[in-house]
From TrEMBL:
Domain Lytic transglycosylase MltA: 125-259
E.C. no: 4.2.2.n1
UniProt protein name: peptidoglycan lytic exotransglycosylase
Species: Pantoea sp. BJ2
Annotated Gene3D superfamilies: Barwin-like endoglucanases, RlpA-like domain
Key words, A-Z: Cell wall biogenesis/degradation, Lyase
Amino acid sequence: MKGHWAKYALTGAFIALLAGCSSKPTDRGQQYIDGKLEQPLGLVNQPNAKGRPVNGKDFSDQVVQIQTASSGLFGRNNGTYSAVQNWLLSGADTRQLNQFGLNAYQMEGTDNYGNVQFTGYYTPVVEARYTRQGEFQYPIYRMPPRPRGQKLPSRASIYNGGLDDRYIIAYSNSLIDNFMMDVQGSGYVDFGDGRPLRFFGYGGKNGWAYHSIGKELIDRGEVKREDMSMQAIRQWAQEHSPQEVRSVLETNQSFVFFKPEEYVPVRGASAVPLIAKASVASDRSLIPAGTVLLAEVPQLNEKGKFNGKYEMRLMVALDVGGAIKGQHFDIYQGVGPDAAHLAGFYNHYGRVWVLKAAPGTGQPLFSNPQNGNNGSLLLGSN
C-alpha cells in the first residue's frame, strides 16, 4: 500500500543504524546452530526447531481476511493454507510437516547463518481537533498540488507556515506524534468528539530527501547508538523544549501528507486487512505476497532487550516496503501505544522457514511473476 511504501522509505536509514557490528553477535537473538547456509531458501526435511506456533487462531483469522479481500491471492495459495490449517489442528509438530504435504525452506538470513532480520511497524493513534485550540496547535496537512518536476516546501518551511491553511486537515497536541505518524505513513486520528476514529492514509510526500532523526541524535551525542529506538526518540523529545524538538525534526526536510478516510481496517500492499503479529512486510522479489512463514521470533523484555527466549509464529507476507530487502521482515504489531512500544524496539534476528504445499523436490518454490521478478527459485534438498 502506498502509505506503507512511504513508511519504509522513511525508516530505512533508521533501521540500518541499529544493526550490530560484531561478526557473530548474539545480543539481538542471533543463532548459529544450523551452520552456514548456501542458498537464500533451502529445502529442509524438517525445521530444526522446538515448540509449536503460539498464534494459530490469529493465523487462521488472517487467512479468512485474505479469502474475503482477495480471491486471487487466496486461490494461488489455498493449497498451502489448507495444509497448514490441517497441520495446526493435528498439533503442529514441526517434525510432521511432510505428513501434511508441506515443504519447509529455511532462509539463509542476513549473515548466511539463518539469522533473518525482524523489525516492527504499527499504526499510531493521534489526538487532534478540527480547529486550532488550546494545546492542539500542530497542523496535519493534506497533499497540496505539486508542480511537475518541482518540490513542495521543506519540513522547516512548512513548520514556519509555508503552506496555505486550506491544506490543514487537523491540529494535534504533539509535534512528535505528528512525526511518528509521518514515519509510519498512516494512522488513526481521534477528534475527541465521540465519533469513530478517522483513518489518515498516506497522501504523498514533498519530494525532499529523508534524513534519519535517530542518526542525528546519535551524531549530536544525545542518544547512545546502542540505546537508539523510537522510544528513545520520544523520551528525548519529552525531556527537551518544543523549540529543541522542532530544530532536530527540521533536519529531516522530508514531509508526509495525509488523506482522511472513514474508519477502515489497516491494509497492506495486498489490500488485505492486517492481523497483528500474523502479517509481515517482505521483499517480493524473494518472498511473494501470500507466502506463509514459520518464524522463530526472539522475545524482548520491557526495555526492548532480548530475553534469551523465542516463540514460534505463523505469519503471512502481505505488505511491502522500500527498506525491506532480502532476508528481512517487518512484523505488523497492531494499533496504538502498546503496538508502538514493541515496534519501536524491534531490530532483532530469528530463524524463518517458508512453508509451501509440496510440489516435489527440485520444483520451483514460486513460479508466478511478482513485481517484474520471475519469482522462480529452483531449490534442491539439503
